[in-house]
Design a protein that fits this description.
9 helices; FAD/NAD(P)-binding domain; globular
């Protein structure tokens, strides 16, 4: 052995990787985390920080294909697919479209809902027991509609979510305005999910990194992964620009970058980078008191004591590093339709990040079948923060050989076939 030695090597320093590292350290393992930039600098940084069991139903739902086709005709719609020939993206889109049926939708919900509910509990316990300074609140989320048809559709979904312990309360327009005075008149109705929560994601990730270091873990920032070297049924080393690393176990938590190093693992990782945007402001005077999901424009609104954020949209444009002004302006217009004071006085940050999107909207969790020392923890889509704690619990069980807390079959890293 000639490389740098590690007991457990975690590839990726976002919320998922750091949460896994912390759990493994608490289990008595020695852990090194590698990140190509700074910890939490990817999609963990600028999202809206909502903890949402209410998002248990997948994006692939009946009728979504027709909705997506209508949106493609509008440059500022919630979804954008960059024109051009990208075989991997079109295979992904076909796989997604094939799952836009009731049977697959209900299967995905049944798999994802218990994880989201448990993760929400685990995050609150971690915040309170370890004193994480991340502006956590258990306020719920309010889904708000101006179109009565969308309101009625979500009310039908509520019955499905209730089967998994996800409570909801529907309110008409008048009750919604009384509950959240920051909203303008013209609201058709809303659905309150009181079991949701929120935190400031950049501070949450910074606190996870603090706990990892205080627990004896090593975080190597600015370390670019160049490839995995396979030797028989295991990964013998991870090549980086700082030299090779060798490890007893490897946690693969690379998010949207996961496909780049998949070939030695022998499994397909059909993850596409779904680019999301946000704008962070100083707090407006007439600030919402609860996180909002403004449904028609697909804009998420979150307020903390330290700031205020508009976020969301989905753009499939590869790893394009440009801030698309049309997407940012769409956030502003969408918020202005619903809110008396949609923006704060000062812009603090305009941001984008790549979400790791799978065709079935489920993460890849568990051991890679043909590679004995790799455990996958990636593909969390828009729910990386929400699923961080339960993913860490699952990875901890798999790595240490403890009985699994959940049935991992729906999340198998091999479910998309061989590479």
């Amino acid at each position: 052995m000639n490389g740098k030695q590690a007991d457990v090597l975690v590839l990726g320093g976002g919320a998922i990787g750091l949460a896994c590292a912390l759990t493994l350290l608490e289990a008595g393992r020695s852990v090194t985390v590698l990140d190509q930039g700074r910890v939490g600098g990817g999609s963990s940084h600028g999202n809206c920080g909502t903890l949402t069991p209410s998002h248990a139903m997948p994006l692939a739902q009946p009728g979504m294909v027709a909705t997506a086709l209508r949106w493609l005709m509008k440059p500022d719609a919630p979804l954008r697919i960059k024109p051009g020939f990208d075989p991997a993206l079109w295979r992904w889109l076909l796989g997604f479209a094939a799952r836009c049926n009731l049977r697959d939708c209900l299967r995905a919900t049944a798999a994802k809902a218990p994880l989201l509910v448990r993760s929400r509990q685990l995050i609150e316990a971690l915040v309170r027991e370890r004193g994480l300074d991340c502006e956590f609140d258990a306020l719920g989320t309010l889904y708000v509609f101006r179109d009565p048809r969308g309101f009625e559709h979500l009310r039908q979904e509520v019955a499905v979510l209730a089967e998994y312990g996800i409570a909801a309360e529907a309110m008409d327009g008048a009750a919604t305005l009384a509950y959240e005075p920051a909203l303008k008149p013209g609201v058709a109705g809303s659905v309150l999910f009181p079991g949701d929560g929120q935190l400031r994601p950049d501070r949450y990730v910074a606190e996870l990194a603090r706990l990892v270091r205080e627990s004896g873990g090593t975080i190597a920032e600015g370390t670019r992964i160049d490839g995995l070297v396979r030797d028989g049924g295991r990964i013998a080393s991870v090549a980086t620009d700082a030299g090779a690393y060798e490890a007893r176990d490897i946690v693969y938590a690379l998010g949207a970058w996961s496909p780049a190093f998949a070939k030695p693992l022998g499994v397909r990782i059909p993850i596409q980078p779904g680019k999301g945007y946000s704008i962070t402001y100083t707090r407006p005077e007439r600030c919402p008191r609860i996180p909002l999901s403004l449904k028609e424009p697909s804009v998420c609104v979150t307020a903390w004591g330290s700031g205020y954020r508009l976020g969301s949209t989905m753009e499939f444009a590869g790893y394009d590093t440009r801030l698309n002004r049309t997407r940012l302006d769409a956030l502003r217009r969408g918020a202005a339709e619903f809110l008396h004071e949609p923006e704060g006085e000062s812009v603090v940050e305009e941001w984008y990040g790549w979400r790791p999107m799978t065709p079935d909207d489920l993460p890849l969790l568990g051991r890679v079948p043909e590679v004995s020392n790799v455990v996958m923890a990636t593909g969390h889509g828009m729910l990386g923060i929400s699923l961080s704690a339960v993913t860490a619990r699952i990875v901890g069980d798999v790595v240490t050989g403890a009985p699994p807390s959940f049935d991992l079959a729906p999340f198998s890293p091999a479910r998309f076939g061989r590479a």
